[in-house]
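Batch job 17 of 40 flagged for manual review because the log was empty.
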Amino acid sequence: MTRPGDAIRPDGAGAAPPVPRQPAPRPPVPGQPAPRQPAPGRFRAALESGTFTLTAEIGPPRGADPAAIARKVEPLRDWVTAVNITDNQGASVRLSSWAGSLAAMAAGVEPIMQLTCRDRNRIALQSDLLGAAAMGIPNILVMTGDHPKFGDHADAKPVFDLDSVQLLWAARTMRDEGKLLSGRRLSPPPRWFLGSVENPSAPPVDFRAARLGKKIAAGAQFVQTQYVFDVVAFARWMAQVRDLGLHERCYILAGVGPIISLRALAHLEQGVPGVQVPAEVARRLRGVPEDRTAEEGMAICAETITALRQIPGVAGVHVMAVANEHRIPAILQRAGIGGAGLPATAGRRLAVKGDSEGGTGRRAGGRDTRGNLEGSSPRGSTWTGHAG
């Protein structure tokens, strides 16, 4: 029987063999440039230092203008450590996440490149992972992805050759063992900081912590969660996470975001699996004039961040305000967090299997309708409760 601490093979066959230590990197060939690999990222360094780490989410444009990414990340540069670049969020066509990641890097902001299983088979997924490493993208977040029926090409054929756990295992194998799923060797192997997503309140609730354990065993070094509005319920999930020791093996960033319209509130209450909006939050939003709903939603989001900071094992927050990125600095300021994070008293270095800047083994450190909070089409969400 596979335990939460066991690695998972892509075919679901159970525990994978121990990851062997990689040999020393080969010296560069005379006359040829050394292969480009992602440098140790600011995001990873912040988590390993113990800083309460802040990330945000960017939806790439529906068009071929990379400057749109620069305009979105500009207000966030001095406030967050890294930005997620979504991968055709809501199963709708957008600028690709790898192109958006390069545009963010050019604008001086570290990207977390999202990669979904919906549109690619294992050949294309592994190729895109290699491409990201070759272009210096340091962070990868994998997810299963929304079904095409939720997007703007409802007749598109879904692929789902792998799911998120299997893709994590594949990416970790590429990095730590230098091998493709086919068994063929990679020279040089890629390097990334690997992440995934989790929905603590999706049914069955009692299984969610163990599901996180499966993702960590497969290779997740950090996890960003679905929106948290019910802090008490999230705290119960974190207690289960701590009981399993998972907070010592993975950095957990709680997902937050402002509800800025009553339409968005209604959508969250009725149409988003695993999202719980407490009655008090709904009462506050409905109890103010409509032109003050956004302001009240921002205040609630800031209060939520303050409460989450008090929960043991929470390494930071991931702020999702797609199409409202300009509101994020004000929310963080209200929460009393300035700059790119809140210094902690001591670093928190985790016992996680994975790459260690040139070696493997034990090292330190390391949807489908996510609610549409900006009040536009529900299909504008990034990931949903069941596609992580």
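Reviewer: the log was empty due to a logging misconfiguration, but the result itself is present. Residues 293-308 form the longest helix (16 residues). Unflagging and moving on to job 18.
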